[in-house]
Amino acid sequence: MTAIVPSYLQDRWWTPEPAGDPTVVRDASTGEVIAHVSTEGLDLGAALAHARTVGQASLGALTFHQRALLLKQFAIALTERKDELYALSARAGATTADSWVDVDGGIGVLFAYSGKGRRELPNAQVYLDGAVEPLSKDGSFVGRHIHTRLRGVAVQINAFNFPVWGPLEKFAPAFLAGMPSLIKPATPTGYITEAMVRILVDSGLLPPGTLQLVSGSVPTLFTTAGRGSLGTGDLLALGDMVSFTGSASTAASLRSRTPSGVRFTAETDSINASILGPDAVAGTPEFDAYIRQLVAEMTSKAGQKCTAIRRAVVPASEADAVVEAVRRRIEEKVVVGDPRTDGVTMGPLVSLEQRDEVLRQVRALEEDGGRIVVGSATAADPHGAFVSPVLLRFDDAGAEAVHTIEAFGPVSSLLTYETADEAADIVMRGGGSLVTSVVTHDPDFAASFLAGAAAGNGRVLFLDRDTARSSTGHGSPLPSLVHGGPGRAGGGEELGGIRAVLHHMQRTAVQGSPQMLTAVTGAWHTGAATREDGIHPFRKPLTQLRVGDRIASPSREVTLDDIETFAHFTGDTFYAHMDEAAAAANPFFPGRVAHGYLLVSWAAGLFVDPEPGPVLANYGLENLRFLTPVSPGDSIRVELTAKQITPRETDEYGEVRWDAVIRNQDDETVATYDVLTLVAKE
């Protein structure tokens, strides 16, 4: 009997008994049975409990940086065995190029979040969000927003089209946030996800309870429709999160059955568009780029991408030229067949069922006015799920079907417009999209279109001759940018840099004294206790330096000669420093004043310890504000306090953020800023 795809639960592999009626999974090209899928007898409640206890404990013991380093190691482990995933992907209809998008794209997400975690998050378990909010005049009562990890499990329900990238783009931000994952892949390609998880398990790198896999259905996961609040019999619990990718209708159903105390995010199918600008006529680089991108999006993954172009929106005057150019490029570049055959550039759809569904949707588009102008909507092979690329043309851009029906395959529809406002209106008729691309070299058209359509899109790509070589393309979500969209697209943000990490965390407003906030956040707050123990903070390695360590400098008088010397030396002879009458006429200055950068430079001289030591480099200055002007005859002094200490896991040094305050002889605040230094651990 063909093998049943196993699940990975409670840190061990689990396979159901070969009983009941398992789902059959077939080779997309040949129809050969390659696996069976079943969850008969699976204890989903025990798996969720394992994640909430063992998984939470494992990740809770790690800092952001430690989790980020594990993501990098996961990526390396998958890279070393990615050929195995390529071979399995071919059975699902993926060409080598398709596998690169899925497998290498997923690995790239792990690398990206590893880097962003170490660059943008502290080496801690609490993330500070925004600046301190003063809540009292004397500074004794302050507030701040923090993020801490959700104390549940991230249940990730994925679509069939990206069995590697799909799970990893959810897993990476959840893991970095400190939240264990339970992955439920789509059945037709779940065997590829199982192989990916097996590689991670074999690596020995996974902390216990942090990743589980359910190969098959989860019928008991959701509550009865309309019940709403959490009950004692629910499998999902407060602190859990469901992240769904798939059809908009399924997302709506699951959302309605998710208890209100459980977060639900969705990235769903959308009727994405690509706009050809009125300047991008045949013969221009933009026209050629538009055709290349449109055909690529129709044929990549056989059009089975949530970001694929479903509506090609072009000026009426260019419609015939676009149709002919698309036909010619498909004839020249696209070979449909078994992806394991040399020369094939587009494989089949994932299954016979998906093939039949796509052809049904094409017929629905035809019934509402679409005419097939490129390709043929027929099944070419009774065994394989092959469909040729299809371009339909609608004479009426207001036809309902083209804005509501998605044929999830190599299918796109051509619509025409006359003005930028009309093009934006066509896009907005889709009810919310993941992405729209605009191919134009005309900034005015681009700005006008964006004003009308940005609110209906998660991402907008502008493509022209300047970006044609470097652009990652219409259909390629990037870890650093939002992947999601409003309305029909689901309203989620599965990617978006650290934004996606914070979706797996709880933002909490913390109020209290500066001393209390220093204790609970690990970062020094103005007004909290400081320490001056006679040792210059710059003489302390990271292992000895403590938050709150401080140095208060002596004073230094500012003279008119100092101001003029600095002005002539730097070339900054702005009138406020050199012309008494003009400076006095300025509402912000009492007369000639010292340069702000002179004061910052002097402050460094006042607080620095010049001898070689643990401080290796000053590599930044942030949040600089000049508050009180300094006149000739005034004096300044500086207070420098260790605000935040971030050791680096893989280096012999870390980052120290110092709070710097320059004051004058009347104790008025002249300037505030943060100094960033790299300090040796020993």
Biggest sheet layout: 7 strands, mixed
Summarize model confidence as the mean pLDDT: 90
Structural class: alpha/beta
* Total count of helical runs of at least 4 residues: 19
Give the CA-CA distance, first to last residue.
Answer: 61 Å
Strand content: 15-25%
Helical coverage, percent range = 25-40%
Task: Write down the overall geometry.
Answer: globular
Count the E strands: 25
What is the secondary structure topology, with strand pairs?
Blueprint: E1 7-9, E2 12-14, E3 23-26, E4 33-37, H1 44-60, H2 64-80, H3 82-91, H4 96-120, E5 127-134, E6 142-149, E7 154-157, H5 165-177, E8 181-184, H6 190-203, E9 211-213, E10 241-246, H7 248-256, E11 263-268, E12 273-276, H8 285-299, E13 311-315, H9 319-333, H10 352-367, E14 371-374, E15 390-393, H11 401-404, E16 411-417, H12 420-428, E17 433-439, H13 443-453, E18 457-463, H14 498-502, E19 505-512, H15 514-521, E20 550-552, E21 556-557, H16 560-570, H17 575-578, H18 580-585, H19 596-607, E22 615-626, E23 635-647, E24 653-664, E25 669-680
Helix pairs in contact: 2-4, 2-5, 3-4, 3-6, 4-5, 8-9, 12-13
Give a verbal description of the structure:
- This protein is an alpha/beta fold.
- The strands form six sheets. A seven-stranded mixed beta sheet has the order 14-15-16-13-12-17-18, with helices on both faces. Strands 20, 21, 22, 23, 24 and 25 form a six-stranded antiparallel beta sheet that branches.
- The protein is globular, with a radius of gyration of 30 Å.
- The termini are far apart.
